[in-house]
Amino acid sequence: MKICVFGAGYVGLVAAACFAESGNNVITVDVDQAKIEGLKQGIIPIYEPGLKELVIRNQSEGRLSFTTDIEAAVKASLISFIAVGTPPGEDGSADLQYVLAVGRSIGQHMQGYKIIVDKSTVPVGTADKVRAAVQAELDSRGVGFEFDVVSNPEFLKEGAAIDDFMKPDRVVIGTDNVRTAEIMKELYEPFMRKHNRMIIMDIRSAEMTKYAANAMLATRISFMNQIANLCERMNADVAAVREGIGSDSRIGYDFLFPGPGYGGSCFPKDVKALIRTADECGYEMLLLNAVEEVNELQKHVLARKVLDLLGDSGADKPLAGKTVACWGLSFKPRTDDMREAPSLTIIEELLANGAQVRAHDPEAIKEARKTFGDRISYSTNQYEILSGADALVIITDWSEYRNPDFERIMADLKEPLIVDGRNLYKPDRMQLAGFRYIPLGRNGSGISAGGK
Ligand code: NAD
Ligand code: UDX
């Protein structure tokens, strides 16, 4: 099939490469000239495992191309995917300006029947807005081409995006048209390896499904973060509790890991947008308000532990003279994405309290520099930052932190203090090895009680 994908970001680029991999002819369009020029030369603007190889192979085999020429891309394609950003506006609602701009561009250049697919995460009712934007352009050109708008939300996770796209748990297709549903089914057929995982529904339900899925996952995380905080105060172990509840098949083990709060480009903005959507129709999402509040508080837990352990409570800057080494800057492993990363809050709080901060991350240093500049120091060697530091704080669960050289950590740190926001190690073994090990929610690992 002939496809164009608007937006060469995390979603658009992965979708374009995966559709090309299954034999389609895919043109990727972006307004960012530098990004497109780089992609033409095989320079991938993001870190996503496996993406580079996929892009380069499909490009060299002639199925995948990159352009800023919107007109040529629209004319050459039957299906246009919209995969541009929908960032939060000032009031938390999804900003649709990029999505609607693409709708207008398609309306300006289409020369016959088109299928326009919303892959961006957009609020219920957006397909109607896209339809109106396209129609307005057709009207102003005085032409009457037919088109259908489909909602096809994307559920991939960064760091595992290729696998998620190639072997999806499900593909949701929202359409009001049988012919379009058949074409979309044909497009996704190669990704249905073992059995059909396509779910066809009406457009508004498809739009809602994406927000409901992310809100549900965010809710599990905030719930577990509160259980972990309570475990600390009650001398219970959240890791055991997770096993105990996850074994119930109705609950399951996934997305029950406590941590420094959820981050990334999706959960925070999508929870906010759903709250806002409800607001607009006079309904209050009480549960999601709490999910968000818990998450905001959780982002402060690690820095608070450091303050409790190292801070001089009488001083203006309680951490003055202290050096804190941080492992992990990106919001999760296997990505360089820093959007809404908990590290942003944690490091700002350490700095505000006078600490010197050194950070390691395998991929996200370039992105992190955009926020912290020279206010912190960086290394791509996880041990280099430890020398003489008063504590190590683990923020992101990169795999290289799971089984590190503990003897080296012990030798390099000034004090053998580890505050672990991802519960990577066994508390009893750490204690035996001589560390002061402070995980989350595990048998009295809370330093100060009380609070929310
Ligand atoms: P991104 O910021 O990485 O990429 C968006 C791209 O769109 C940018 O390269 C930008 O230059 C381009 N763009 C903007 N206006 C354009 C236009 N008029 N024409 C062509 N290109 C244009 O965004 P992303 O993370 O890929 O997210 C895209 C959408 O997918 C969002 O709605 C997001 O919520 C959703 N989503 C993201 C993820 C994820 O993990 N990142 C997962 C599922 C869904
Ligand atoms: C998420 C959704 O999982 C994906 O389906 C959707 O398409 C986009 O948003 P992503 O943001 O890439 O994907 O990462 P995800 O693995 O979901 O993690 C999000 C955040 O939750 C991270 O900050 C992560 O550290 C945190 N998290 C996740 C936890 O704190 N505990 C968990 O158990 C799982």
TrEMBL record:
Top EC class per UniProt?
oxidoreductase
Protein residues bound to NAD(+): 30, 35, 86, 121, 158, 269, 339
Positions annotated to bind substrate: 155-158, 210, 255-259, 263, 332
The reply to whether Oxidoreductase figures as a keyword in the UniProt entry is yes
- Pfam families tied to this protein: UDPG_MGDP_dh, UDPG_MGDP_dh_C, UDPG_MGDP_dh_N
Superkingdom of origin: Bacteria
Q: According to the UniProt entry, what is the EC number of this protein? A: 1.1.1.22
Q: Does the keyword Metal-binding apply?
A: no
Recorded catalytic activity of this chain's protein:
UDP-alpha-D-glucose + 2 NAD(+) + H2O = UDP-alpha-D-glucuronate + 2 NADH + 3 H(+)
Pathway assigned to this chain's UniProt record? Nucleotide-sugar biosynthesis; UDP-alpha-D-glucuronate biosynthesis; UDP-alpha-D-glucuronate from UDP-alpha-D-glucose: step 1/1
Please provide, alphabetically and separated by semicolons, the GO molecular function terms listed in this UniProt record.
Answer: NAD binding; UDP-glucose 6-dehydrogenase activity
- Where are the active-site residues found? 266 (nucleophile)
UniProt-listed GO biological process terms: polysaccharide biosynthetic process
Q: Which SMART domains match?
A: UDPG_MGDP_dh_C
Positions of the UDP-glucose/GDP-mannose dehydrogenase C-terminal domain: 325-427
The record's family statement is: Belongs to the UDP-glucose/GDP-mannose dehydrogenase family.
Functional summary from the UniProt entry: Catalyzes the conversion of UDP-glucose into UDP-glucuronate, one of the precursors of teichuronic acid.
What is the name of the protein in this document? UDP-glucose 6-dehydrogenase
Source organism of the structure: Geoanaerobacter pelophilus
| Highest classification ranks of the organism | Bacteria, Pseudomonadati, Thermodesulfobacteriota, Desulfuromonadia, Geobacterales
